[in-house]
Write a structure and sequence with these properties.
Elements: E1 3-7, H1 9-14, H2 21-33, E2 36-41, H3 42-48, H4 53-56, E3 67-70, H5 74-85, H6 94-105, E4 110-112, H7 122-135, E5 141-143, H8 145-149
Parallel strand pairs: 1-2, 1-4, 2-3, 4-5
Helix pairs in contact: 5-6
């Protein structure tokens, strides 16, 4: 079975960023080959609308059959609001909360991000897991692309 990996906007943008280019591109290549299944949210696609053209082009390389699209469902919206209500994230971080909530509700295998302040952050990850447990959702594995790919 192919792992379902939810990539947030930072990973797609990372393909064109000097600091994150190599691991982001390696992950993208795994999606292109079909070794991993790319899970994108409607939120990610909206965020990419304002990205530079070169970043928007990144996703064109991934065959449609290797991509799954997540919508912001009522349960995901409720879960995101719970992260905010319980101060796992601050009130201005709704988009980050929605990324985590959609991945949790969809039961993806891993969420990958370069956002170390609000997403790939151990204290916050514990908070997401605690809220998920109480709301009946599994803990979502949250990693950077480097952690998913192993050593380069």
């Amino acid at each position: 079975m192919v792992d379902r990996i939810h990539a947030d906007t930072s990973v797609i943008g990372g393909c064109e960023d000097d600091e994150f280019r190599v691991p982001s591109r390696r992950l993208l290549d795994a999606f292109v080959r079909g070794d991993l299944r790319l899970v994108l949210s409607e939120l990610t696609l909206r965020e990419l609308e304002t990205a530079p053209a070169v970043v928007r082009e990144v996703l064109r390389a991934v065959p449609d059959g290797h991509v799954e699209l997540l919508r912001l469902t009522a349960p995901a919206a409720e879960l995101a609001q719970r992260y905010l209500a319980e101060r796992v994230l601050g009130p201005g971080m709704l988009a980050d909360a929605e990324h985590i909530a959609m991945a949790s509700v969809a039961r993806v295998d891993v969420l990958v991000s370069w956002n170390f302040r609000h997403i790939v952050n151990l204290q916050r990850i514990h908070g997401y897991h605690d809220v998920n447990r109480r709301m009946g959702y599994p803990a979502v594995d949250i990693r950077s692309p480097r952690e998913v790919l192993g050593d380069e």
